[in-house]
Amino acid sequence: MSEHILEAKTRTEKGRKTYTLRNAGSVPAIVYGAGTEPQMVTVDRNKFVKTYQAAGESSIVELKIDEKPPLHVLIQDYQIDPLRTEYTHIDFRSIDMNKEIETEVELEFVGESAAVKALGGTFIPSLETVAIRALPSKLVRSIQVDISVLATFDDAIHVSDLKAPEGVQILEDLEVTIASVEPPRSDAEMDALNAAVEMDVSAVEVAKEKKEEEGEGEEGAAVAPDAKASGEKKADKK
After folding, report:
1. pTM of the prediction?
2. Which CATH architecture has domain 4-94?
3. In order along the chain (238 residues), what is the average pLDDT of each group of 10 residues?
4. Fewest CB atoms within 10 A around its CB: which of 55, 71, 80, 83?
5. 3-class secondary structure for the chain?
């Protein structure tokens, strides 16, 4: 049994009618994948948020639809209203618990780097997730990365340094860098950076002034023919 359980209800509403569901605090969703035909369902928005925060996209969720036996699913995809920052639709992918699957797992950086704390460097994560293969029962929410090994600016953490949980195979290139620490900029580098920024700002201001001048010239050129035509008309009246 999964530690993440979420209840769902079958729905018949489609298209614009789903606004009623959203206004009532529910999120329309679809379930598809192994062992099931595509089903339209709804889930409680607040309960889904709590489940997603705990499970992420790489932990099995038991989805209980009505009174039917629960399905083992992954939160495959979702949509969010950019204005209201609310979930508007969810995709659940049903999983065969007896077959290995490939997915991505988040990297959780823990510990404290001496190169950052004592030497004033900047922590640079190069990867946020890694691809893995495992049986659904072996999937994990995240893989921890201890950054305390980053004691100098020459140190780096690679995929080969990860400690994968039992039953989990990491599919990334072992030589790929996961994280490192960048040394602080010297006074000369900061002066050069500030000078470059000032040059960019000056270039933008010059370009803006030139554009405005060209606009004024075009405006004057556009008025001239009208003035000439006006003069011709006056001459005709004489």
Report:
1. 0.70
2. Beta Barrel (2.40)
3. 88 87 93 93 96 93 93 95 91 96 95 95 96 94 96 97 94 96 77 68 64 58 45 43
4. 83
5. CCCEEEEEEECCCCHHHHHHHHHCCEEEEEEEECCEEEEEEEEEHHHHHHHHHHHCCCCCEEEEECCCCCEEEEEEEEEEECCCCEEEEEEEEECCCCCCEEEEEEEEEECCCHHHHCCCCEEEECCCEEEEEECHHHCCCEEEEEHHHCCCCCCEEEHHHCCCCCCCEECCCCCCEEEEEECCCCHHHHHHHHHHHHHHHHHHHHHHHHHHHHHHHHHHHHHHHHHHHHHHHHHHHC
